[in-house]
Predict the structure.
Amino acid sequence: MLAALAALTLSMSAQATHHTFSVQGEHFMLDGKPFLIRSGEIHYPRIPHQYWRSRLKMAKAMGLNTICTYVFWNLHEPTEGKWDFQGDNDLGQFIKIAGEEGLFVIVRPGPYICTEWDLGGFPAWLLKDRSMTIRSNDAKFLKITETYMKKVGDVIKPYLMKNGGPIIMAQVENEYGSYGSDHVYMAAIRDMMKRSGFDCTLFTSDGPSQSMLKGGTLPDLTPTINFGGGAPNAFAELAKFRTGVPRMIGEFWAGWFDHWGKQHAGSNIQNNVKDMEWCLENGVSFNVYMFHGGTNFGFMQGSNGGSNDYNVDITSYDYDSALNESGRVTPKYMAFRDTIAKATGEKLPEIPAMPAPITIAKTKLTQSSPLRSSLPTPVKSESVKTFEDLDQSYGIVLYRTTLPTAGKQTLTFDKLHDYAIVLVDGVNQGVLDRRKQERTITIEVPKAGATLDVMVESLSRVNFGGLIPTERKGLQGSVKLGTTELKNWEHYRLPLSAPPKNLSPVAIALKEPLWYFGDLEVSEPGDTFLDLRNFTKGFVWVNGKNLGRFWRIGPQQTLYLPGVWLNKGKNKIVVLEDSGKVKNPTIEGLNEPILDEVAIDYSRLLRKPGQDLNLTGLKPTKSGSLPEGTKAQTVMLDNPVDARYFCLEALNSQGGDQWTALAELWILDENGNEIPRTDFKVLYADSEEINGENGSAANLIDLQPTTIWHTQWQGAKAAKHPHSVVLDLGKSYKVGGVKLLPRQEGANGRIKDFNFYFSQSPFKGI
Ligand code: GLA
Ligand code: CA
């Protein structure tokens, strides 16, 4: 009886028997039969390895038959030629456990992986060599990438299906169609994957539009599509591009990530369920992104940025996903589980029980010496060097020089990535923050020969868009005092890879990065959420593990501390506090996270005080009316125009309300193809709701249908029509039309009558 049971469980598990997987026409085939992939994305380094099995069991119990993971090059090769596949980086072990738990596996080795991760997974040291262009068909880059690919190939080979393992597919690159269209590059990545042993079905992932599909996939690769809502419309787009292939949502964005200083994001469960039901009914495979997001521990958070904006991802990668950051079931999980059970009739495994999170009593931390008090030997040079030049990937570099003249003066930085604390003879002069495009500061120099210290922190490298190849950290170009360029710099490298061992208490009222330390008393280890609301900005280490960045601006106020990193009894905690002395340096462990308490900074609205777009005297290039509904709308101009600037003016809304809301905006070329938006900036919006929700106009070009531009609706003076938004395309294009994606969730503000204005020169008043 027992033996029979065991045999049954084995035959049901993905790993026990030799399966076959292939693509035949419109189907994925498993063991010769059409197979619907019900996958969930889950990333091994975002979860302590001790928890992998429990999370994978949760995936199985939700009704998933597959999990999908990226491979994180910058973790596996932190320094060129030094490889790490141990502990939380043990990719092979992760795949093995997934197989043991009866799950198939999809791997996505990149090399580019985006995923809100520093430089989209590329090791920062790649940026040192300025003669090489990363993510391109550059021979040097391809050679280095192949070495990486071979390493990964060696790790995954035993787990390929043809070798009895759970791997069914591997992805080539990642959303390359949102970045470029060089098929030679894509083919090079595909071929090196084949040479490296990825002997399985290969596929690509791209946004559901003709230009992204055209740019991002190859004729012999299965094209999957990524989006966060509106599956029928998206697959209608795919059908226009290619038919006779299996249909799969490569990334079904059932959730979204957060930026520091912006409202917490999420997704609507009913809408997600509707899409999942549609997939299950129509034989469409999917990969829920994220099934379980986990945490961007350490310095690995990414950011979004273009030439006039920069937004840093928070530490939590909760993502509003089905399984929350600490691996616990959410209402979304239950809704997906019910949907899958109903559609398939399968009896799903019981949901494994999880121990409750713990609390840790309020603990006072002891102040210690400033970060600046113990400095390594500096690297000297005439002009400033970047982190990458200094062979440093993360943390802080202290730039030091002497100031030639006394008095109140202006200090100007050519390029500052990303956050600088400026000190003159040890006195804090203020902070410069790239998120706010700050590059100048007035300083008080007590005497000629005073010491200037600029402590520059990397807030993380951009992981999406055109800045990737040049996203270096620290100071670049010139630093000027008035009009005099400052020379002869000392660079002190502070990679913060571990906090100092011997911290001793000293009481000092300094306004500069300071260490705090103490012991957390834990009677029974368990998951907890450290409340950092008494501190302002910095990093936390517990028993040597870097929990990530905290920042009082929110929306994240607590840091996830996994129970497996705690000991019974005393636990060493070290906090690096950027601002120096805080009033009440106490910390406590809560039994639930705070991820949605944000201090809105209205100075970050696109419309600056005094700005008022003035279109008088201009004739609209095109006027018209959009139909109601969620479908993307293409409006072609009567005649193509040469233009660099675009203004969309919304005159009213479908429902007669006073708002404007829009999900995505594309500019089309003469042939109706979308112009890549990598160099686009949103210059102006007459109004944005950034408190009641994240309604920033920047959401118009972020690819995600669930993020929208929404004009202000909170407060007494919510703005009225007409509403307008202005894009700078970065250079002049021959423009043929505009594509608009209405908001998908909720009908308020959907545009009815509109004017388009195209121009070669900037519009007046802004
Ligand atoms: C894209 C990328 C993912 C991730 C999501 C947003 O789809 O492929 O890596 O960045 O956007 O979370
Ligand atoms: Ca959007």
